[in-house]
Amino acid sequence: MSTIFVNNIQASTGNTVTIPQGHSLQLGGTTLDSSSLMPDPTGNAGKGVASDGSSYVYNSYGAKGIITYTTGGTYFPSSGTKLVYVRVVGAGGGGSGYSETGGSGGFVEGFVSMVGVASVQITVGNGGSATYYSGAAGQGQTSSFGTYMTATGGNGANSNHQHCGGTPGIGSGGQVNLYGGGGTGHGHNGKGGATHFGGAMASGHPQGGSYTANHQTHAAPGTGGSNGWASSYPGGVGKEGIVVIMEFG
Predict the structure, then answer these.
(1) Mean pLDDT (whole number) for 111-139
(2) How many other CB atoms are found less than 10 A from the CB of residue 110?
(3) What's the sign of the alpha-carbon dihedral 167, 170, 176, 180?
(4) Residue from 210, 197, 208, 205 nearest 237 by CA
(5) pTM for the predicted model, two decimal places
(6) Does residue 187 fall inside a structural domain?
(7) Residue 176 falls within a domain, yes or no?
(8) d(CA 13, CA 189)
(9) Domain total of the chain
(10) Is 46 domain-assigned?
(11) Fewer beta carbons below 10 Å: N end or C end of the chain?
């Protein structure tokens, strides 16, 4: 083997230095070939470079978009989607008219591969019905992202025990699976269980006792229904769940 020490290599004719077929060039012990070169940037404005396992390629990286479901339906991955990050919340349980409140829906989040997946069925749970003084309020329904992730609904006021708040739902199937917030028990101005997305509807004495019912839609997804004021007024209906999908290429 010969060693030549030079500071500059130039072609004898033209502007190309050619390494003959069957020979290779090494840099620090690493063999260099065509896959070692960056790809042509023409027509790839705004894209990043990464490895596809054998060579460098241009592609769009990071989230492509966010899709939100507040009612059930069918999710069709957009063109080029290989992975989704999904968050699911079950619906909240209903509140009672006097003081007890509903538990919130469970929460689950995680990544799901969409390679080879044509569609996914989405279920979004409805909130539990409200009740008056001492009846059992309705349970919130389950929300799900196909068979991949499920978040059960929260229980309604008085449904677990008399004069007690509803217990929360729980998530399953994801990388993070959590309970929602529980409802409050006997006492005035109770708030429904909160979720990962925020707090429950307002409650209070004004407006003839119907304050909670008037504001029951002003709450984060999956929260439990807050209490009314007296036995002649219902509590708040539990808030429906939600499914949020973030797509990646």
Answers:
(1) 94
(2) 18
(3) negative
(4) 210
(5) 0.79
(6) yes
(7) yes
(8) 89
(9) 1
(10) no
(11) N
